[in-house]
Structure formats: C-alpha cells, structure tokens
Design a protein that fits this description.
By secondary structure, the chain is α+β, with helices and mostly antiparallel strands. Helix content is 50%, strand content 12%. The protein has 3 domains: 437 residues, no CATH class; 190 residues, no CATH class; 170 residues, Jelly Rolls, CATH 2.60.120. The protein contains 28 helices and 17 strands. It starts with 66 loop residues before the first helix and ends with a helix.
C-alpha cells in the first residue's frame, strides 16, 4: 500500500473500479429481507450499520423483476421520504422569522439543490445505488450563516429583498468554497487529516445538531420561535402552542413506532402520506376551512400578494436582474469565514463516516478519495448553480438501495426528476401541508441524533468518562458561546487532555515480535508446525493510542497483513523446494497450507490507554483484516487498564475469551458488532492457540499423528530435538531412542491424581521430572510492591501484595529443573491439573547414567538447557509485567 494512500481505518481503502461489480450486489431474484428505512443520515451513522429488518422481498415484488423496474420502485420509495425531509431541512436553514414570508420559494431552492446533489452522485459515484441530498450535518452552520447575515443586514437597515439576496449569495458562496476544499482534500489524498478532529468534539457538535433539530421541530409545530437561548422554551407555556404541539408529538410517536415495528419499506412513506390526509379529514369533520387553519398556525400562511411560482424567475431572488448585481451587500460575506471553515470540517468528517459505514456493507473496497471528490463536486455544482446548500451521502438510504439490489441509474433518475418537478411546480406546498408533519419529522431526526444516534446519551457507554465529559463540555460551550468558539474550546480541551495523557507514557506504537510459542510438542508436530508458522504475524503496540496515532498504527498493521497474504505464494514455492518428500506428501502439505488460516496477533501489553476513535479504528481494522482472510487475535489487554476491553467491546468488537465467553455489546446499545476475535491474557497463549488451529488442519490432512494424552520416554526426549540441526545431527532419532532405553532402566514413574501436588514451595529439590501424561500446572507467587506517596521520599508507605501466575506443562515438558540444578529449595508449587504421570530423575539416576554412557548425559544436558530457556522466557514475561 502506497504511503500516500494511508488513511484512517475509519475510511475505506482506495480502489479503482468505476462502478460496483454486479457480484457485490444482491441478485434481483433472490429472496431477501427489506431494509429498515430511517430518515436521517447523521442519526443512523454507525460503524457497522446493518439495517435489515424482517419481511420477504418476493412477497412484495415479482422475483423476476428486471433491474430497471426494481430501481424505479426503490427510487419512488426514496422520493416519498426525501421530499418531506427536504422541506423540513429548508425550514431549519431558514428558521429565522425574517424568512417566513419567503419559505415556500426557499423550499423550492433547497429541493433543486437536492436534485443537483443526486445528479452528481448518480453520474460520478462508483456506487450506482448512492443517494446524495442536502444533509443534516451542515444544517446548523447553514442556519447560523443565514440568520447572522439577516440579522446584520437588519441592523444596518438593508431592505428585505436585498437582505434575502445577500443571504442566498452568502450560502451559495459558502457551499461552493466547501466543495472546492473537499475536492482538494480528496485529490491530494489528505482524507486522513480530517479524522484528526477529536471524536468528543465531533460528538459534542452533533449532540448540539440534535438539540437544534429538536428545538426547530418544536418551533415548526407549535409556532413558537425557539433558538439556542433556553429561555425561548418558555413560549410553549400557552394553550395555543401546546394545542398545536400535541398532535406533532403524537405523530412523532407513530413515526418511531412504525420505524421500529415494521420493516416493510412502504410503511414509513405511507404513514407520512397519510398524515396530511388525516389532518384534512379532521378539518372537514370539525367544519374548519384551510384559511382558518392557516390563520391559527396549523398551516403556513401564504404571503400577502404572493404570485404563482415561476421557476425560471427563481434567480431573481438574488437580484441578478442587472449585472453586476447592486442588491448584494458583499461586505457581510467575509465575516462568515470562520463558519465556512468549520462547515468544511463537519461536512468532510460526516462524509468520511458515511463512506466508512457504507464500506462496512460493501465487499469491494471503495475509493474513498474519489468518493470524497464526488461529494466536493456536488457541493461545488450546487453552489455554482445558485442553490448551494451542503450535501453528501444519505447513508441510510444508500444502504437501503444497496440491499434492495439497485444496480441501475434509473433510481437516481427517478429521484432527480421528482425533485426537479417539485421545484418547477407552480404550487407552494408549504401552504397546504400541516406544520405538524414537518415539526414531527424534524423532532424525530433531532431526538434520534440525541438518543439512538448515540451522540449524547448512549455515547456515555461507548467512550471513556473523560471523553464523555469533553463531549458534554463541547456541547455546553457551543450552546453558551456559539459554534466557532464552542468547537474551538472543545478542540483545545481535547488537546490538553491528550497532552496530559501523552506526557505520562513513552509512545512507541509499533514493533514486530517473534511468532512462535514455547510449547513443548512431539517431534512430528514440531516438524509439521515449521511449515505453518509463517502464517502467523505478531505485532506489539506500545504507549497511548489516540485519535492521531491510530491512523499510522492501523496502516502499519494492515501493511503487515497484506505482506503476509502476498508472501503465501513465495512460501508455497519454498515448501516445494524443501526436504525430499513423495508426490503424495507434497500434495497433502499443499492442500493443508491452502486450508490453514492466517493469523495476525496484536499484543496490548504496553498499551497505556486509548480513546474512542482509536478503539473504533481497531474495529474497522478487524473488518478489513477479515476481508483479507486474516484472523485477528488480541493478547495482553492489561488488567491495569480494564477500560480497554470495555471500550473495544462498546465500539462493536466482540472479544471471545479462552473459555469461550464473549465480551461484546453494551446493554442498551444498538451498535452492531463488526465480528468476533479471540483474545488471551498472554502472547504465549495467543501463539499457542494459533498453533493448535494449524495442528487441527495438519492432523486432518494426515501430515502428522493425532494428539495423544501420553508419550513414551523416547518421544519425550525427541520433542526437544533441534529442528535446525536435525539433518546434520549424528545418530539422528536413533540416538534419542538409545538414550531413552538406557534412562528407562534407572528412572521410576510416579502417578498423580487430579489436584495432587507434585511438590510444594519450600520442598527439597532432590529430583526433577519429565511429564509422561496429563497436564502439570506450576503456580508462581510474586511479591509486588506499590509505593504510595512521592517516589524517592524516605519513609514513604509501601504496600506489598501477592500476584500469582500459572504456567501449564504438557507431556514431554521438564518440570522442577531450575531449583534442582540451583541447589535451592523449591520456589513454587506444582500440581496435576488432570490425572498425570511423570518420570522421576534424581541425582543418583544422573550419576548412574553418566557412569554408563557420558554421551547420554550430554544429550540430557541439552534437553534440560532447552527446558530452562523456556522457563526463563516465562519468568521474563512475568518480570516485564511487574516492572
């Protein structure tokens, strides 16, 4: 992978295809479930966004429906959802009271903007099922720009028509600038830079977006203007406002219930279509006229003297009747520079999350930078057309289209044509549709962002306590000080927190470590495992993993995995040129190597902590490794940092423990797991697990004998034979068999019941043991000192506690040799985990064997030296843990 293509693992890996291959799309004739539709892109943005619900596709449409007809049907469903959402978003952008007389015309402009966004996505996106519209993530900045310019113009006595023209031009220029910046970001492959905005800051901003939408929805439904000032909510304390608000709240509950209980894609559109019908039925039953409903605030009032809409005159709102236009007050545009820059970051970040979430459901890697360029192009085009309102992928509807098998441009054409027709229609839909419809939809989007979107409430379970505090602080800062200062304050607070955390550790995030366990195995098992060991790579992570370093860590780990996959062909050729073997043996080996899994071990022993962005990075990395055919194994999640496991699990990575238990979903969370991976307390245990999987394949392929519960003395000695010197070794296996025959005349066997002690700590070391059958565990107790108070201060209180470690030894292993040769009392205890048998080798036995065959003693010395080395490795691992 080229260095300039290294991106945050939240982002999909670049690819070159122009369009999604047909193989990646659900076949048109297959029986399938309807995906559940949701209205908001932001509220449904997940790392692993599976959106399938119940329901059989073939019970609704013919199985033989051709791709274009299917795309047309899906396009109509998208339109039924998109049109009311577009009108609602227009009401949010232009929520200031100044825009009330123009809202019908402004809805038309936003509708045309959505049509142009969809047109660009249909033409240039690599995904034929892409849905691109004006999006919620930029609404708050667009609304702030519109309101600020209108307020500034009013303060200087600018006429209303000139104020409107200035606002529209400022929004158009803002969107065009955002488009240019996003295009540059994609073309220069700088997408990962966008991800350096801390997640708590983005979460705090999005939580405010949710609050903003909720307040806007209440304002639309009740007719009471509500903004950032909490005191404006007091306006609801009137009978008329509450009377108008209650039906909207009931519709909100219905939308929520239908979305959760019904999976059919027509359920939600039909509810939205039925709401105005029910409203007019109630009007007729009560004897009220439309004019009376408009007068009472149930429906938007028509502007006095309003003329029928003529779409070709739309740009007269900009004052472009003369050129250069004289009705635009350009001095107000540069004052929005800070909001425009922040708008670029939130739109780029939101698009990053959308593409990453779509990638989770698409098998073929997306060209992220190209998709980002497409987002920039759509914003640039809408800006140049004079209807610039920021947009991006609508993630939920894009995935809906994917799962419906859309692979035809007809879907996009249907959406574009429908929105253009609404723009051209001479009717102002806002003076006919009830405000409760728009209010309920906007409130649903707002509450979903706050609740189900996880940005305020459920986020507590997905990030650390400090990060959640930063999220709330950013939310509060934006509420008190405004968008720019609030976001800047959040970034500053996140930077200070990171500086404090980073200063406590030395950051060395990546190193490759050996990929073999120290388990004692029989000779034929060790010989076979030599062929499989190259299929394991182990990487050690060190330091504090944060929202910036996780980019490089993931890229390096992914490069190791890609190198592992790429090296398989070379390994196969090396195996074919190895030691002489029959054709049958070669075929068995090649078949076993093809079926054997690939493993990548990530060791967290030296990780001091991570933030939620880094945790999400590892979830995305796990998905990408799965697509490469590499299984992720995690080891050494430190007990000193228990939040690490919880943080990974809360982001969707289920950790399967050695006992088979799974640590996964957080209770109450709707996040879906990216998959499961094994985790072990030590690197040794993780490597042992990988080798066991290889042995399963080798035994199934007939490359070695099945596992046995006991071994002969010759097999036990042969298990310690050096593989590298096997061919040059004088005597070969016969030497070990002769030594075993001689040793067998002197040693005695000892049988142990389950749980019986082989020796206790403090016993005399009068012998050592070679395990014949069963499993012996060695329990080592270490004294761990904790200094409380200032380090280095004489007399500082010290707390001593015991820390126990357990090591497992299987047949062929040597136990008790360290203390035997050191001549000291036993420093640990050993007992039988299962019924076991051992050979007992005393000093008298060694002397008798030495008198009869000195070469046998030399062989025993080499075996004991290897066993001592393994014991030293275990001891070093424990000492590292304690230091």
């Amino acid at each position: 992978m080229a260095s300039d293509d290294i991106e945050d693992p939240l982002l999909p890996e670049p690819a070159s295809p122009r369009a999604m291959p047909a193989a990646d799309l659900p076949p048109a004739s297959m029986s399938k479930n309807w995906p559940a539709l949701r209205l908001s892109s932001m509220s449904t943005r997940r790392l692993s966004p599976s959106m399938l619900g119940g329901g059989d596709f073939d019970t609704v449409t013919p199985a033989a429906m051709d791709r274009h007809t299917r795309a047309a049907l899906v396009g109509l469903i998208d339109v039924m959802l998109a049109l009311p959402v577009v009108a609602s978003f227009a009401s949010i952008i232009f929520q200031a009271p100044f825009f009330a007389p123009y809202i019908g015309q402004l809805v038309k402009l936003v509708c045309l903007s959505s049509a142009l966004h969809q047109l660009i996505f249909s033409l240039f996106s690599t995904m034929p099922f892409a849905m691109g519209q004006v999006q919620d993530v930029g609404l708050i900045f667009m609304s702030a720009i519109a309101s600020n310019v209108a307020r500034a113009c009013a303060g200087e006595g600018v006429p209303a028509d000139e104020t409107l023209a200035t606002v529209l031009v400022t929004l158009t220029i803002s969107t065009a600038i955002v488009g240019l910046l996003i295009i540059a970001t994609g073309m220069l492959k700088l997408a990962s830079l966008v991800q350096y905005v801390p997640l708590p800051v983005i979460g705090g901003y999005l939580a405010f977006v949710g609050y903003f939408c909720l307040a806007a929805g209440v304002s639309l439904a009740s007719g009471v203007h509500i903004d950032e000032d909490p005191m404006t909510w007091a306006g609801l304390a009137s009978a008329d406002a509450l009377l108008r608000l209650v039906p909207a709240l009931l519709l909100l509950l219905l939308i929520t219930a239908v979305q959760r209980r019904f999976s059919h894609p027509l359920a939600l559109p039909l509810l939205l279509a039925a709401a105005p019908v029910v409203f007019y039925v109630v009007l007729a039953a009560g004897g009220w006229t439309l004019a009376e409903a408009q007068q009472d605030g149930w429906v938007t009032k028509p502007t006095p003297g309003e003329k029928p809409w003529k779409f070709w005159e739309a740009w007269s709102l900009f004052g472009f009747d003369a050129f250069p236009p004289t009705t635009i007050h350009w001095r107000f545009v540069p004052k929005q520079a800070g909001k425009i820059l922040a708008l670029y970051f939130v739109v780029a970040f939101g698009s990053s999350m959308d593409v990453a979430a779509i990638q989770a459901d698409v098998a073929t890697p997306l060209d992220y930078n190209k998709e980002l360029v497409t987002v920039g192009m759509s914003n640039l085009v809408t800006g140049m057309a004079g209807v610039g309102y920021t947009g991006s992928y609508i993630f939920s509807q894009t995935l809906f289209n994917l799962k419906m098998g859309v692979d035809s441009p007809v879907m996009g054409i249907i959406v574009v044509v429908s929105e253009v027709l609404l723009f051209m229609a001479p009717v102002n839909v806002m003076i006919y549709l009830p405000n409760l419809l728009f209010g309920a939809m906007v409130m649903w989007i707002g509450q979903d962002i706050l609740k189900a979107g996880d940005w305020l409430f459920i986020a507590y379970k997905r990030v650390s306590h400090v990060e959640y505090a930063l999220l709330l602080a950013t939310f509060g800062a934006i509420t008190l000080w405004g968008l720019e200062l609030g976001i800047a304050a959040g970034i500053a607070a996140a930077a200070l927190h990171f500086t404090y955390s980073y200063a406590r550790v030395t950051l060395r995030t990546f190193s490759v470590v050996p990929s073999r366990s120290g388990a004692v195995r029989t000779w034929d098992h060790r010989r076979v495992l030599e062929h499989f060991v190259p299929r394991v790579r182990a990487c050690s992570l060190q330091g504090y993993l944060f929202f910036g370093s996780s980019v490089l860590v993931s890229a390096k780990v992914l490069a190791v995995a890609q190198d592992l996959v790429a090296s398989l062909g070379q390994l196969a050729r090396q195996e074919s040129r190895g030691r002489p073997r029959t054709q049958r043996e070669s075929e068995k080996l090649q078949g076993a190597l093809i079926r054997a899994p690939l493993f990548l071990i990530l060791d967290f022993k030296r990780v001091q902590g991570m933030d939620a962005t880094a945790a999400r990075t590892f979830v995305s990395l796990h998905v990408r490794l799965q697509r490469l055919g590499v299984q992720l194994v995690i080891t050494h999640l430190p007990d000193e940092v228990p939040a690490l496991r919880k943080l990974l699990a809360s982001q969707g990575l289920i950790l399967r423990t050695p006992s088979g238990q799974e640590e996964g979903h957080v209770a109450g969370s709707e996040i879906e797991a990216a998959g499961t991976c094994q985790w072990f307390e030590t690197m040794e245990a993780g490597l042992h697990f990988c080798e066991e999987q290889f042995l399963d394949v080798a035994i199934e392929s007939g490359l070695c004998s099945p596992r046995r519960s006991d071994v002969t003395l010759a097999e036990a000695l042969l298990a310690h034979r050096s593989l590298s010197d096997a061919q040059a070794e004088p005597g070969g296996p016969a030497r070990f068999e002769a030594a075993a025959a001689l040793l067998g005349r002197y040693v005695r066997q000892r049988k142990l019941r389950e749980g019986e002690a082989l020796f206790e700590s403090g016993d005399e070391p009068d012998c050592f043991f070679i395990i014949k059958s069963g499993t012996i565990i060695v329990e080592v107790s270490f004294a761990e000192n904790e200094h409380q108070g200032k380090p280095g201060v004489e007399g500082a209180p010290t707390l001593t506690r015991a820390q126990n470690r357990t090591f497992h030894h299987d047949p062929g292993a040597v136990v008790g040799d360290f203390d035997f040769f050191a001549g000291r009392r036993r420093t640990f205890r050993a007992l039988a985990l299962t019924p076991a048998a051992v050979w007992v080798i005393s000093r008298a036995v060694l002397q008798a064997v030495a008198d009869e065959s000195p070469s046998t003693v030399v062989l025993l010395q080499s075996i004991i030296l290897r066993a001592a080395s393994l014991t030293a490795v275990h001891a070093f691992e424990v000492l590292e843990k304690l230091t």
